[in-house]
Structure formats: C-alpha cells, structure tokens
Write a structure and sequence with these properties.
single chain; about 350 residues; alpha/beta; Rossmann fold; 2 domains; about 15% strand
Length: about 350
C-alpha cells in the first residue's frame, strides 16, 4: 500500500540512513583544508530546518569532547560576541537558504573563521570566491533526509583541526550495524512492526513529545519536525526538567481538546536519576487526564548508538503516520509557497 502513496520514495531515504552515514564518513575523511584555523574560542553552526538539526546532533553526540562553547544559530544574524576567534560552520543543504546566506555576510563583517557544508548553490559560490573551505555533500535528497551528511562532516572537521578528540569510527560502525538490523523490522507495514503499531495509535492525534534535555532532547526536536514535515501533522516537544516548572500546569483546563492529544516519552538509560524520578511522577500526574502515554526507549551499547537509533526510529514513525494519513511524506508545499512569496520581497 505505501508504495502507491510514497511517490517520491521517502521510504528509501529512511532505509538508506546507515549507508548515508557510511558515505558521509568517507566524504569527510577526504576533506582537504586550504585555510588555517587557530585560537578558536567558540563555535557557531548556522542553519535552518534539517541543516540546523545536524548541528544540534553533533553537539549532543560529542558533548563530552567539546571544551569550548557551541551555539546553533537559526537566524539571519550571528550573536554579537562572534569575532575573529569564532568558528562559523554554515550548513545549508541547498546552499540557497536566505537566513544562512545572511549570517555568512554577518560572519564576514565580524571577521570570523568560516567553513561551509552544502551541496552547492549560492553558499558554495560565495565561499569559493572568498577562498574558504567547503565540504560538498551529495545532492538529490530532501534536506531532512540528508541528516548524516550534515553532522558527520562537522565532527570529522573538528577532529581534523584538533578542536575535539572523537571515537566516531567506533560508535558510528556499531550504529550502522544496529540500524541495518532494525530496518528489516521497522520497514514492515505490519502489526509485527512496533513502530507501525505505534503510528496507528498516534497518527490521528497531536503528539506531545517529552524527553530529558541532556539525552534525548534533540531527538525530541527532530521527531517533532519529522511529524510535521513527513506526517503533515502538528506536533510539539518539551524537555525535562523545564516542563515541570511551567507546562505541567497547563494540563488543567480545556478538557474537551485533551482527547486529541497523545504523549510520547523518549527515554534513555543515561537519563539523570532525578530526571527519571521526575518522569515517573509526571506520568502519574498526567494519567488523571486520560491522555494516552507511550514510551520509546531503544537499544545500543553507547549513548551515540542509542541516539542515532532513536533518530531513525522517529523517522520511521513519522513515515508510517504519513502513510496512515494517505499522504506522500516528501512534498513540503507550504514551505515552497513561503519561499516563493519571500523571493518576491526585496
């Protein structure tokens, strides 16, 4: 059934995630740097949507190896503190993202050190003229489906310029093995597939995704975006412990609309013990509202393996929600309309 709906083959894009990770690693190992990078005191990753989430993922996967501040900028302008000791990584899959191009101009004004990750477009053209380094990644994918080509080059680049020391080869190879094994199950349009089964319970609801900010928080952001872009359905996410200081009180009024919500908990064995306790208490409090709650916790020896497993799990979940809606997951018509309208405004 899904093949008739999935006309642009998002299925293959999700299926190919482990192969994309392998290819991204090979591309990144061949990076030849023309520029010298010195005295870097902070890193800013500039991007939007699927390109920006790559920066978030890089930061969480290498959080124990980063000894300088890292900030993901989803904006037209960079923070005021950016200067010659800042490393700016401009990430734009198409190379034509207007916010990223604007931030590049700002980086030049601030005399920052710059590198780009892109398939081409205006970003590549400008960086070539400026004689800046560019990591060229494969084209032909939806930006959100090119995730591996976003974060892996960033990690290996930071290793090359000696900002971090990473054991990426070890956890990446293990992750690829897990993902190849699991996709045999996750790709089944069947009740035997736990993701398809979960999709049947959430596709006609508004998912509220809760997770620990220090572990699966970024995976929650990714899943929210995938529900929206692939499933064409509204979704929201928040993180512990912050949601315990405000959002939990919001579960009070408007009982009639609560039946349209569903809660998805993303959990990890590395969650802080106090966070685990908060999760349990929060779940118990929300049971009074008769809102269905589902828990996703995946396997993997290391955090990196479990994180990438969770990302792929969420991608499959959003895909099956799209199929259950009888909606092609690939097109993003509203984004295209928005870009067209913006192009007419100077």
């Amino acid at each position: 059934m899904y093949k008739e709906i999935d006309r642009e083959n998002m299925f293959k894009a999700i299926w190919d995630f482990p192969e994309n990770l392998m290819e991204a690693e090979n591309i990144s190992k061949d990076i030849k740097l023309k520029q010298k990078y010195s005295n870097i005191q902070n890193i800013v990753i500039v991007g939007m949507g699927g390109s920006a989430i790559g920066g978030d993922i890089m930061s969480i996967l290498e959080k124990h190896n980063l000894n300088i501040p890292l900030f993901v900028c989803r904006n037209y302008l960079l923070p005021n503190w950016v200067n010659k000791n800042s490393l700016i990584i401009c990430s734009s899959y198409s190379g034509n993202t207007e916010e990223t191009l604007s931030a590049l101009d700002d980086a030049l004004r601030k005399n920052a050190q710059i590198i780009g990750v892109t398939t081409g477009g205006e970003l590549a053209n400008r960086l070539k003229i400026l004689e800046k380094d560019i990591v060229v990644i494969p084209s032909g994918l939806q930006p959100r489906a090119a995730l591996g080509f976003s974060f892996i080059p960033m990690i290996i680049f930071l290793v090359k310029i000696e900002i971090i020391q990473s054991v990426i080869e070890e956890w990446l190879n293990n992750s690829i093995r897990i993902l190849k094994k699991k996709r045999e199950l996750y790709s089944l349009e069947s009740e035997n597939n736990p993701i398809y089964k979960l999709a049947k319970n959430v596709y006609n609801k508004i998912p509220i995704i809760y997770s620990n900010i220090s572990t699966m928080g970024i995976a929650g952001i990714r899943l929210k975006g995938q529900f929206c872009e692939n499933g064409k359905m509204l979704a929201y996410n928040n993180e512990l412990p912050e949601l315990n200081h405000n959002e939990i009180v919001g579960w009070g009024n408007n009982y009639r609309i609560l039946k349209n919500l569903v809660i998805i908990w993303l959990k990890d064995i590395d969650d802080n013990p106090r966070i685990k306790h908060r999760q349990k208490i929060t779940q118990n409090i929300l049971e009074d509202f008769l809102v269905k709650q589902y828990i996703i916790q995946v396997e993997g020896k290391t955090f990196q393996e479990r994180f990438l497993h969770m990302i792929n799990y969420g991608d499959w979940l959003s895909f099956w929600c799209a199929i259950l809606h009888e909606t092609d997951p690939s097109p993003v018509e509203k984004i295209n309309i928005l870009k067209k309208e913006l192009s007419t405004i100077i």
